[in-house]
Design goal:
heterotrimer; A alpha+beta (395); B mainly alpha (602); C alpha/beta (362); A: 395 residues; alpha+beta; six-stranded mixed β-sheet; five-stranded antiparallel β-sheet; B: 602 residues; mainly alpha; MetI-like fold; two-stranded antiparallel ribbon; 26 helices; 2 strands; 74% helix; globular
Chain lengths: 395, 602, 362
C-alpha cells in the first residue's frame, strides 16, 4: 500500500493542453475519485499515473518512489509501477481463459507457479468466479468480465489501484452490483485507489474523497459530503446538482453571518458563514445555490418562515415527472426550479397551476454560498472564468 | 518551487530544452529506431528510386550512365504505351475486385457460418495457392483451346460452334485471372474475418438490417483496411502479370503492360533499353502511389479495432439451408481456381508432351528425379520460402504494430516501406534490387550469397505479408496491450504474450502467402544468388522455356507434394505441441486448485 | 522423348563406368576420333588436364541452356567438369556481369545467347579472344575472335499430316498470305518480341529483303492466329487444332515429332531470299574464373561429337559438311535469308524490331 502524490502535472497533446497543472495527494488506503465530464482530463490524469501516457511535465510519486519527474528525467515504465488498473472496456484478452488472465500478472512477476495458481484461485474465489476459471474470459457476461478484470488487477496486491470508468459499460442493475464489489474489495484490501468516473452517485458511494475536474483543471477536492453540500465554485455546484444558482453581492459579513443581496430580486438575506466553503468579504460577488428538491413550495407566505431564503414568485411551468413535480417559478428576474415530492404534491395539488402565486422557502442549512469573484455583475448562468491555478488538496 | 510560482499562471510554457520525448531511454530508443528506419529505407525505398531515376539514364546498368530524356519521351509518346497501360489497369482492377469479392465471401463462409466442409476451405485455398501461374494458365488454356478442349467439345455438340470461341479475349482472361487470385483474396481476408465479434453483426441485425445488409453494412466496412490494402496490392501485382495475359490475350490482340516492359527491355538492341523499361515502370509507380493515397484518404484515421477485450464472440452462425448454396460456391471456386488446372497439370506431368494425348509415361518424373540437383533445389526452395516468408511476416508484424501504435511519422514510414517494392514491375524487380544495392558497401559483398537472396526475398514479399497482417493488428484495441503493461509486462513481453497470439491467424496467413511469393519468384534467384543455388520455380521455368513443360510440371508437383508433406507435418506438430502444453498447464492449474480447495475445506 | 530418355540412361551409366575405369585410362586412350583428328584430340586432352590441374571443375554460362543431351554428352566426355547454365535475358546478364565486375567477385565464364546480345558484349569489351582447336571457318567466329557461333537454329513450317498432305502445304511466305490459308495457320506472336519479331524485322532489312518480302507482314497478320509461346505453336499443330504452324522452331519440332505426333516440317521455307534462321553465339567473359574449362567446353561444341550432339537436339551444326538435324541437308548447302553483318546487325535491327512489335499490337 502506498500513497500517491501528483505534483504540477501537465499534459499536452500537440497544441491541446489536456491537463493544466494537477496537484493531488492520495493517502495510503484512501479511495479518491476524479469526477468530471468526458474530456475534462480525468482519464488522461489516470493514464499518466499508470504510465500509459507520458506527462509533458510534473512529478508523480507512488509511495516513496518517484515514477515520473519531468525535470529529473525519470520515467518508470507502467509495468514497473506496481499498479493495478481496471479499464472501461474490461480489456480482457480473448485468447486467455479466466484463470490464465488472472495468472498473467503473477507470471510476469515471476511468482512461483503453484503459489501463483493458488493466489489466482483465491482472488477468483473472492470475486466469486472460481467456477468459471477455465472459461474464455471474454465469453462471460459483462459483470463477470469486469470482475475478472478486477481480479486481474488485484491479484498482485498492487500499491495503487486505478479504475478508469469501470462501470460505464455495464447495464444499470449490474453497475450497482459491481460497485458494491469494488467497495467490498477496497475495504477488504484497503488498497490506495484512484477512480475515474463521470457519475456523481458512483463517486459519492465509493469515495473517501472526490476531486472534481473540468477542462484539465482540478476544480475542487473534498469529502463526498463537502463536495455535495459546499461546492466552491459554480461548475462544481452545477455538477453536484445545484440547479439554482443566483448571483448575489455580499453586503456585510458581521457576526459570523453573511448578508447578501440577490441581483435578480433585489432582496437581502442572511446566512451563517458556514454556508460558504470559503471566507468572503463585503463586496464579493457570490452565487447563492440550492437544489430544487431542497426548496419548499407554499401557496401563501409561510406564517413562520425558517431562517434561510424566501422568494415570492409566480409558477411559470409545471412538469409532471412521476415521482416528483418540477416547477419553474419566476421571482423578479430570477428563474427558480423547485421540485416537490409525490407526497407533497398530492396534498397540495389543487393550488399548483401555472400562473399561480407561490412562495419558495429554503432552509439556511441547505443553501450554499459560492464565491465567484469581485468583478462586475454577470449573468445568472455565466460560467466562471477558468482560473489557471491548481486547487486541490496539495498542502 | 518558487520559480514555478513566479511563472505567469496562464502562460505556462513547455520547457524549451530537449522535450521529454527526446531524453534518456527514449532517446536511445529513438536512435535505434532511426537506425532501423535508415536500414529499411535503403532496403525498401532505394530500389524504386533507382528504378525511377533509371528512366532518365542510358547505360550498362539500370540507373547508371549518361543522362538523357530521349527514351523517356519516346516511350511516353508511343500510343501503345498508354493502350497497354489501360488494358492492364482494366485487367488488374477488375480481377482484383472479382477475386477479392469471391475470396471475402469464402472467408466469411469459412469462419462465420456453419456450412458443411467449411474447415476444408483454408487448406484447399492454401494448396491451390502453391500452383504456379504458368501451369494454372496452361491448364486453363487446354480447357478452352483446341478441338479436344472440353469447353469446345461441349459447344460443338450443343450449338455446333467450331473452333475455340472462348479460347481468348477479355471474358476468359478475366475468368482465368480472377480464379488465379481467389486463394490470395481468401487467405488475406480469413484472418481478419475470424477476428470479428459476432455481436457487431447482431447489432446490425437488431438495427433492422437483413442478413445480407448486415454483411454489407457492418462486416465489410469493418474489414475495409485489409480489403483496401489487398485490393491495391493485387492491382499492382496484376499490373505486372505476365504469363496469363500472354496466354489468353495475344490471340485476341490484347496486350498488357508487362509484355511491353519485357519487349522494351529485351528488344534487339545492343544495350538493354533500361530507360524505356523504367519509364514504363513509372506508370506503375504513379498508379501505386495514387491508389495508396486514395486508400489512406478513404480510411482516414478511423479506428477499426474489433477485438476490444469484452464480449468477444467470433462463433459461426447457422444460416440454414442456404448454406448448401455456400457449399456449392466453395466447390465451384475450388474447381475454378484449383482442380481444373491442377488436374491438367497432373495429367501433363505424365504425358510425353504437355496436353497432347500421346499416351502416358513416368519419364518426366524419372528425368526430374535423376537430375542430381533436384532434391537440393526443392530443399533450398522450402527453406528459403519458410525462412523468407517468416522473416517478411515478422518485419510486417513489427512495422504494422509500430504504425498502429506510433504516431503519424511511423505510420508514414511503415506505409512507404510496405508499398515501395510494389511499385516496381515484377520483371524489373531483380534488376532494381541489384542496381540499388550494388553501391551500398555492406550489401555489395553479400550479392551472390544466399543471404542476399534472403534479403531480396524479404524486401519483395514484405508488402504481401504486411497486407495480410496489418488488418489483424488494427483490430486489436490498445487497451488489451495497456492492461498487459499494467499487469507487469514490458513492451516486448506484451508484444509476444498479447499482440502475437491475437494476430496469429493473420500472421500465419501472411507467412504462408509470403512464403509462396518467395517460392514463385523468378527474377531474384537468378540475379542475387549463385547459379548453383536456384529455386524450383526458376528451374521449372527454364525447363518450360526449353520446351520441357512436362518435366516442369513434374518438378512443380514434387514441390507441391513437399510443401503439403512438410506443411502437414509442421501443422500437426504445432497442433500436438500446443495441445500438450495447454493440457499440461490446465492439469497443473486444476491440481493446485483442487488441492487448495481441499485445504480450505479441511 | 523416349530416345532422349534412353540417351540419358546411357549417360547415367557411362559416368560411373568412366569413373570406375579411371579417368586416367580414358585420357591415355584418347578419344578414338570422336572429337576430331588425333592432333585435335590431343589438344582437347591437354586442355582437359590443364583445367583439372587448375582446379577448374565447373563452368558457369549465362544464357538459355541447350538441350540436356548436349550437357549430358559433354559431362560424359569430360566427367570432372560440370557446365551449369543460368537462364538470364540480356539485361539481367549485363546487370549481373556489371555487378561481378564492380565487386570483383567473378562467377560467369561464358555468355551464351543469340547473336545480338553476345556480339554487343564483345564490342563493348566484355569478351576474351580465343583460339579454336577445330578448323572453324571465319564466318563462325567474330569480333576479332572473341565470339563464336557454334550453331544455328532454323524456323520452318510445321504441318499436321492428318489434316493436310505435306505436298499440298505452302512452300513460301507469299503462298501463306493467300486467302486459302486464312484461319488455318498458327504462329507465335511477334508482339511478345523474340525470334518472331526478329524474323519480320529481317524481312524489312537489309533492303534486298525488303523488296522480296514486301507486304508479307501485312498478309500474314491477316491470315494467322497468334499464340503466346513457341512451344504452343507445335502443340496446336500436333493436337490438330491448326493444320499449319508458321515460324515453327525446329528443335521443338524434333522433340514433338519424336513423341509420335503426326507432323512434318516444310524446309526450306523461303521467299527467294532464303530460309529464316538465327545464329547462336558464345563468348568467354573477361576475368572468367574458369577460363580453361570454359575454353574446353566451347571448343568441344565445335568438335565432331559436339556438333553431332547439337544436331541431335535439333539445332543446325555449322562445321562444313556436318549433316543437318533430323536428315536436313548440311547448312552450307541451305539457302539462308540474308542478314546484315554481325557488328552492323546489333545496332541496325532494333528500330525494325520495335516497329514489328508495334505492328502486331505490342
Amino acid at each position: 500500500m502506498s500513497s500517491l502524490t501528483v505534483h504540477s502535472l501537465h499534459k499536452y497533446f500537440g497544441a491541446f493542453h489536456a491537463i493544466k497543472g494537477a496537484d493531488l495527494q492520495v493517502a495510503e488506503g484512501e479511495f479518491v475519485t476524479l469526477l468530471g465530464e468526458s474530456g475534462c482530463g480525468k482519464t488522461t490524469s489516470l493514464r499518466c499515473i499508470a504510465g500509459l501516457e507520458m506527462p509533458s511535465s510534473g512529478r508523480i510519486v507512488i509511495g516513496d518512489r518517484v515514477v515520473f519527474d519531468g525535470e529529473r528525467r525519470i520515467e518508470i515504465q507502467p509495468e514497473k509501477r506496481e499498479t493495478g488498473m481496471v479499464f472501461q472496456s474490461y480489456a480482457l484478452w480473448p485468447h486467455l481463459t479466466v484463470i490464465e488472465t488472472v495468472l498473467y500478472p503473477l507470471r510476469r512477476r515471476k511468482v512461483n507457479s503453484s503459489e501463483a495458481i493458488s493466489r489466482a484461485r483465491e482472488i477468483l474465489e473472492i470475486v466469486g468466479l472460481e467456477q468459471f476459471a477455465n472459461r474464455a474470459a471474454t465469453s462471460l457476461s459483462g459483470g463477470q468480465q469486469q470482475r475478472v478484470a478486477l481480479a486481474r488487477a488485484l491479484v498482485i496486491r498492487p500499491q495503487l489501484m486505478l479504475y478508469d470508468e469501470p462501470l460505464s459499460n455495464l447495464d444499470p442493475s449490474l453497475r450497482r452490483q459491481v460497485r458494491d464489489e469494488i467497495l467490498r474489495l477496497h475495504r477488504l484490501n484497503g488498497t490506495t485507489s484512484v477512480y475515474v468516473t463521470h457519475d456523481l452517485e458512483e463517486a459519492m458511494h465509493l469515495s473517501d474523497r472526490i476531486v472534481v475536474m473540468q477542462s484539465g483543471l482540478l476544480e475542487q477536492t473534498g469529502t463526498p459530503a463537502e463536495i455535495f453540500t459546499r461546492p466552491t465554485n459554480e461548475f462544481v455546484a452545477k455538477f453536484v446538482g445545484f440547479e439554482n444558482l443566483l448571483p448575489a453581492r455580499v453586503v456585510s459579513t458581521a457576526g459570523g453571518d453573511i448578508e447578501f443581496e440577490i441581483d435578480a430580486t433585489g432582496e437581502r438575506a442572511t446566512l451563517p458563514a458556514s454556508a460558504s466553503a470559503k471566507p468572503v468579504i463585503a463586496g464579493d460577488r457570490v452565487s447563492v445555490a440550492f437544489r430544487s428538491a431542497n426548496a419548499l413550495l407554499h401557496g401563501e407566505r409561510p406564517a413562520d418562515p425558517v431562517p434561510g431564503l424566501l422568494f415570492r414568485g409566480t409558477i411559470n411551468r409545471v412538469d409532471f415527472l412521476g415521482s416528483r413535480n418540477e416547477y419553474r417559478i419566476v421571482s423578479g428576474d430570477a428563474h427558480l426550479r423547485v421540485t416537490e415530492s409525490e407526497r407533497a404534491y398530492r396534498r397540495e395539488a389543487m393550488r399548483r397551476d401555472a400562473g399561480a402565486e407561490a412562495w419558495v422557502e429554503v432552509e439556511a442549512d441547505l443553501v450554499s454560498i459560492i464565491p465567484t469573484g469581485t468583478a462586475d455583475v454577470r449573468k445568472c448562468d455565466a460560467r466562471p472564468v477558468p482560473k489557471f491555478t491548481a486547487t486541490g488538496a496539495a498542502a | 518551487m518558487t520559480e514555478r510560482a513566479t511563472m505567469p499562471l496562464v502562460g505556462w510554457m513547455r520547457p524549451d530544452r530537449l522535450p521529454a520525448d527526446w531524453r534518456g531511454e527514449r532517446l536511445i530508443a529513438r536512435i535505434l529506431l532511426g537506425a532501423a528506419i535508415a536500414v529499411l529505407f535503403v532496403l525498401f525505398l532505394l530500389p524504386p528510386i533507382m528504378m525511377a531515376l533509371a528512366a532518365f539514364r542510358v547505360g550498362n546498368l539500370a540507373g547508371q550512365g549518361d543522362w538523357s530524356i530521349g527514351p523517356f519521351l519516346e516511350t511516353l509518346g508511343r500510343a501503345s504505351t498508354w493502350r497497354v497501360a489501360l488494358n492492364s489497369i482494366i485487367l488488374s482492377a477488375a480481377s482484383s475486385l472479382g477475386a477479392l469479392a469471391m475470396g471475402t465471401f469464402l472467408a466469411w463462409v469459412s469462419v462465420r457460418t456453419t456450412t458443411p466442409l467449411r474447415r476444408l476451405i483454408t487448406p484447399a485455398m492454401a494448396v491451390i495457392l502453391v500452383m504456379p501461374s504458368l501451369f494454372y494458365g496452361l491448364g486453363w488454356y487446354l480447357v478452352v483451346n483446341g478441338n479436344a478442349a472440353p469447353v469446345n467439345i461441349l459447344l460443338r455438340s450443343l450449338f455446333g460452334i467450331t473452333g475455340s470461341p472462348l479460347g481468348s479475349g477479355w471474358p476468359i482472361m478475366l475468368v482465368v485471372v480472377i480464379g488465379y487470385v481467389i486463394p490470395v483474396g481468401y487467405l488475406f481476408m480469413v484472418g481478419p474475418m475470424a477476428r470479428m465479434d459476432a455481436a457487431l453483426d447482431d447489432a446490425a441485425r437488431m438495427s433492422g438490417a437483413s442478413r445480407t445488409a448486415a454483411f454489407f453494412t457492418v462486416t465489410l466496412p469493418l474489414l475495409r483496411p485489409t480489403m483496401f490494402g489487398v485490393f491495391v496490392l493485387m492491382t499492382s501485382y496484376g499490373f505486372s502479370a505476365f504469363e496469363l495475359p500472354l496466354l489468353f490475350g495475344i490471340q485476341a490482340d490484347i496486350h498488357v503492360f508487362s509484355t511491353a516492359v519485357y519487349t522494351t527491355l529485351t528488344g534487339q538492341d545492343a544495350i538493354p533499353n533500361y530507360a524505356g523499361a523504367s519509364t514504363l515502370s513509372l506508370i506503375l509507380m504513379a498508379l501505386v502511389i495514387g491508389l495508396v493515397v486514395v486508400r489512406s484518404f478513404v480510411l482516414g484515421s478511423r479506428r477499426y479495432s474489433t477485438i476490444t477485450g469484452k464480449g468477444f464472440r467470433p462463433e459461426p452462425k447457422d444460416y440454414g439451408r442456404i448454406q448448401w448454396a455456400f457449399l456449392a460456391v466453395f466447390v465451384i471456386a475450388v474447381c475454378w481456381a484449383g482442380i481444373i488446372p491442377l488436374a491438367q497439370m497432373i495429367i501433363g506431368s505424365f504425358q510425353p508432351l504437355f496436353g497432347l494425348s500421346l499416351g502416358f509415361t513416368t519419364a518426366n518424373y524419372e528425368a526430374v528425379l535423376s537430375e542430381r540437383r533436384t532434391a537440393s533445389t526443392i530443399m533450398l526452395t522450402l527453406v528459403l520460402a519458410a525462412s523468407g516468408g517468416f522473416l517478411a511476416a515478422s518485419v510486417a508484424l513489427v512495422m504494422s504494430h509500430m504504425a498502429t501504435r506510433g504516431g503519424q511519422f511511423l505510420r508514414f514510414v511503415a506505409a512507404v516501406v510496405s508499398w515501395a517494392p510494389v511499385a516496381i514491375p515484377g520483371i524489373l524487380l531483380g534488376l532494381a534490387l541489384i542496381t540499388a544495392y550494388l553501391p551500398v558497401p555492406g550489401l555489395r559483398s553479400l550479392i551472390g550469397t544466399p543471404f542476399m537472396l534472403l534479403i531480396g526475398f524479404i524486401v519483395v514479399v514484405t508488402p504481401i505479408a504486411t497486407r495480410a497482417i496489418e488488418g489483424g493488428v488494427l483490430q486489436i484495441s490498445p487497451e488489451l496491450e495497456e492492461s498487459a503493461r499494467i499487469s507487469g509486462a514490458s513492451k516486448v513481453v506484451t508484444f509476444f504474450t498479447v499482440v502475437v497470439p491475437l494476430v496469429l491467424p493473420s500472421f500465419l496467413a501472411g507467412w504462408f502467402i509470403a512464403g509462396i511469393g518467395v517460392a514463385g519468384n523468378l527474377s531474384l534467384p537468378v540475379l542475387l544468388s549463385s547459379p548453383t543455388m536456384q529455386t524450383v520455380a526458376v528451374q521449372a521455368y527454364d525447363a518450360y522455356r526449353q520446351g520441357y513443360a512436362t518435366q516442369a510440371a513434374a518438378l512443380f508437383l514434387l514441390l507441391m507434394l513437399a510443401v503439403a508433406v512438410v506443411g502437414g507435418i509442421a501443422w500437426g506438430l504445432a497442433f500436438i505441441i500446443t495441445f500438450l502444453v495447454k493440457r499440461a498447464q490446465r492439469t497443473r492449474i486444476d491440481r493446485v486448485m483442487t488441492s487448495t480447495g481441499r485445504e480450505k475445506h479441511a | 522423348m523416349l530416345k532422349r530418355h534412353a540417351k540419358r540412361l546411357a549417360t547415367a551409366l557411362a559416368i560411373p563406368l568412366a569413373l570406375t575405369a579411371g579417368g586416367a585410362a580414358a585420357l591415355a586412350d584418347g578419344y578414338d576420333g570422336a572429337l576430331g583428328t588425333p592432333e585435335q584430340e590431343a589438344k582437347f586432352q591437354a586442355l582437359y588436364e590443364a583445367a583439372l590441374g587448375a582446379g577448374q571443375t565447373r563452368v558457369i554460362a549465362y544464357g538459355p541452356p541447350p538441350a540436356k543431351v548436349v550437357l549430358d554428352t559433354f559431362h560424359a566426355r569430360f566427367p570432372k567438369i560440370e557446365v551449369i547454365y543460368q537462364q538470364l535475358q540480356s539485361a539481367e546478364r549485363l546487370a549481373k556481369l556489371e555487378q561481378e565486375k564492380q565487386t570483383g567477385n567473378f562467377v560467369a565464364d561464358i555468355a551464351s545467347d543469340g547473336r545480338t546480345p553476345v556480339v554487343s558484349m564483345a564490342v563493348d569489351g566484355w569478351c576474351q579472344q580465343r583460339e579454336h582447336i577445330m578448323d572453324v571457318p571465319e564466318a563462325w567466329s567474330g569480333v576479332n575472335g572473341t565470339v563464336q557461333f557454334q550453331q544455328v537454329a532454323v524456323f520452318g513450317l510445321a504441318v499436321n499430316t492428318n489434316l493436310l498432305a505435306i505436298e499440298d502445304a505452302p512452300k513460301s511466305w507469299r503462298e501463306l498470305t493467300s486467302e486459302q490459308w486464312k484461319g488455318k495457320v498458327v504462329m507465335v506472336s511477334p508482339a511478345a518480341g523474340g525470334a518472331a519479331a526478329y524474323t519480320f524485322a529481317q524481312m524489312d532489312h537489309p533492303d534486298e529483303n525488303d523488296r522480296k518480302y514486301d507486304g508479307i507482314k501485312e498478309g500474314i497478320k491477316e491470315n494467322i492466329s497468334l499464340v503466346a509461346r513457341d512451344a504452343l505453336v507445335l502443340q496446336e499443330v500436333a493436337a490438330g487444332n491448326y493444320p499449319i504452324g508458321a515460324l515453327a522452331y525446329y528443335p521443338y519440332f524434333v522433340q514433338i515429332k519424336a513423341q509420335g505426333a503426326p507432323i512434318e516440317f516444310v524446309f526450306p521455307f523461303t521467299e527467294g531470299g532464303g530460309n529464316m534462321w538465327t545464329k547462336s553465339a558464345q563468348c568467354l567473359i573477361q576475368n572468367a574464373p574458369n577460363p580453361i574449362a570454359a575454353d574446353l567446353y566451347m571448343n568441344w561444341e565445335f568438335s565432331k561429337e559436339g556438333q553431332q550432339t547439337l544436331s541431335d537436339s535439333g539445332l543446325y551444326p555449322v562445321m562444313p559438311g556436318t549433316p543437318g538435324p533430323g536428315g536436313l541437308p548440311p547448312l552450307d548447302t541451305v539457302d539462308l535469308m540474308e542478314q546484315l553483318p554481325d557488328e552492323q546487325a546489333i545496332k541496325a535491327y532494333g528500330p525494325y524490331v520495335r516497329e514489328v512489335i508495334a505492328f502486331f499490337g505490342g
